[in-house]
Amino acid sequence: MNFLHVFKSVNVSVTSLVLLAIVANVAVAGHWDEENNPSAIEQYTGQKLIYKLQQLPTSGRLENKPWPDTYWPTRNNGIAWDWSGEGSPAGKFDKAKGDGSGIAIKEWFRTRGIFARTAPDWAGICHGWAPAALNFEEPGTCDYNGVHFYSGDIKALLDLMQGNYNPLENCQVGGRSGTGVSERRVVNADEDNVINDINPGAFHLIIANSIGRYQQGFVMDKDGGGEVWNQPTEGFKVLKMVPKSVDRSLAAAGTVKEYEVETDVIYTDEEGPSKEPVVEKKGEADKEFRKHWSLKYILETDAQDNIIGGRWLQADHPDFIWFSKRAEFPEPFGKTLKAIYQKSLQNK
User: CA 252 → CA 10, 103, 203, 231, 266, distances in Å?
Assistant: First the structure.
């Protein structure tokens, strides 16, 4: 359901591989490398991270919950899809703007080009929807220049703008593997980044700090295999944290303590485009698009109780996570989409 998006920060290389079967529930070495270093988030957001395990919150939930949306599949013409029967989001925008921007034509070529002919069914613009859902309040509906925009239409435009037109850099932690755990091969424990995608120690640090302390969500590629499924990550709760003896054959250098951890991660799932806003009102119970994912892993700490690494205890775990700053209505969307969006919020 998500677009095969290659970020500028991704640079995964695998060297000198030999055949070694890796099965689910087998953990491997726990230090993190430069690609998994959570300090990248500090530099990107300016938010100081706490590394001491016992000082970190054990739960957190975004007050401003992300909104669900379709990933606007490439096979369905992206946002040139007339989902409502009243005109596509791209076509409506072109009509409302009236300056020949040609978003609909650009979408047609983007989704009908050489790649699109053989695009997998999961390819789309989830790399736009997920960060847009975190950066923008859910739009309402409005009329603009004689054109009626549903909430789903405005979401589609925000998704495309955020994913394909945002000039600002993203920040990613963890590398895209492109294969499932059972298919991966390593020479020794030092190449654990090839097997483990984002290091669970880095993942725990980031989710506890970003959501637990700063109320900042992030995007998570939930698929550890060849597909990319970007999901807005909105909450977590540590269900179990039990001290265990250190496994010296697997632990990161400098590990003094290990903890077996189970964490419930909450993310927003996809849902078909809607005419009206769908995010829960304050005090309302979670809807079906709020999903829970139980993750099990080992955390490793040093003599000062700082998290220095970790190991996954399950094959089904995140591939990588990333942060994206809000796109401030760059062209060709510009002031027209900004006006449509702001008017829709006033109508909620």
Answer: 23, 50, 16, 29, 28
